[in-house]
Design the sequence.
């Protein structure tokens, strides 16, 4: 594995080049909606679960040299036994990875949602360093944060709700 | 914690986030919530700014006064951020600082745009 770095744009570029269907969620989605939340260091996406998309996703993850990210494991992650395949991806709900472009979380069914179809229905396209990115709309982000209810979610909820109010 | 969070649009504590969200949900001012709950407005302000931390019982009574309730569930610990932190710590110090500055500046620019109404 090459020296890992954080290159969010590079990561999204690889996903797009492989024509992966996904929606950006989580902290990066909030940042792209222009809410000044504490900086996120990982990228969270909800990919479409169609077999053809999982094939493309597996190829993109191979190019990104994705490895399992485990709390007590090596920072560079651990090899996925048998490699990342569409079949393996299809059995997962959430996967935390380390890639050559930084940490990447795949969340197929974010809290409070039913997954890709649910999120892509209301997605917005936002610009990130010159790249058009499909991002979950803020209402859906709030819905998911409310359902998740972790401390870090609750702490940004007032700002997200205020942002929503201002923009409607 | 309070100091580091104050640069961002985020509540300083879990309780602060809950109380602000609750007030927002039912459209109450701090004063109105204080009157309903039988506490001072200063107490609500102290909770929301993280200067004071309410007990769980107090938090529940504040929410109840707003016509809401706190539902708590116990779930396995979500440790996924620990892996991210370990990854970040593995990067060269200079690169880490560069990334943090970049993300922090992005947040500050977003905040500025919001203040200017853009």
Sequence:
């Amino acid at each position: 594995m090459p020296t890992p770095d954080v290159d969010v744009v590079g990561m999204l570029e690889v996903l797009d080049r492989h024509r992966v269907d996904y929606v950006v969620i989580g902290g990066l989605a909030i940042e792209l909606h222009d809410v000044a939340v504490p900086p996120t260091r990982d990228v969270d996406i909800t990919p479409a679960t169609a077999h053809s998309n999982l094939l493309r996703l597996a190829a993109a993850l191979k190019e990104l040299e994705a490895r399992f990210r485990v709390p007590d494991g090596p920072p560079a992650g651990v090899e996925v036994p048998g490699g990342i395949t569409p079949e393996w991806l299809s059995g997962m709900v959430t996967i935390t990875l380390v890639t050559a472009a930084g940490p990447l979380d795949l969340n197929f069914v974010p809290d409070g949602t039913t997954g890709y179809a649910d999120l892509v229905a209301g997605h917005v396209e936002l610009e990130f360093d010159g790249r058009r990115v499909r991002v979950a709309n803020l209402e859906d982000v709030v819905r998911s944060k409310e359902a998740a209810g972790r401390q870090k979610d609750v702490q940004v909820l007032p700002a997200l709700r205020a942002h929503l109010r201002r923009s409607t | 914690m309070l100091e580091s969070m104050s640069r961002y649009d985020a509540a300083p504590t879990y309780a602060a986030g809950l109380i602000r969200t609750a007030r927002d949900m039912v459209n109450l001012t701090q004063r109105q919530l204080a009157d309903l709950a039988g506490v001072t407005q200063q107490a609500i302000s102290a909770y929301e700014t993280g200067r004071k931390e309410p007990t769980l019982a107090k938090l529940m009574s504040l929410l109840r006064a707003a016509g809401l309730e706190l539902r708590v569930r116990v779930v396995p610990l979500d440790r996924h951020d620990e892996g991210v932190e370990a990854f970040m710590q593995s990067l060269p110090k200079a690169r880490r600082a560069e990334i943090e500055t970049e993300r922090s500046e992005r947040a500050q620019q977003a905040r500025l745009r919001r203040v200017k109404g853009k």
Summary: The first strand of chain A starts at residue 22 and ends at 25. The beta strands of chain A are 22-25, 43-47, 67-68, 94-99, 102-107, 124-128, 131-135. Chain A touches chain B at residues 4-6, 31, 34-42, 69-71, 73, 75-77, 96, 98, 102-103, 105, 149-152, 154-159, 161-163, 166 (CB under 8 Å). The two ends of chain A are 46 Å apart (CA to CA).
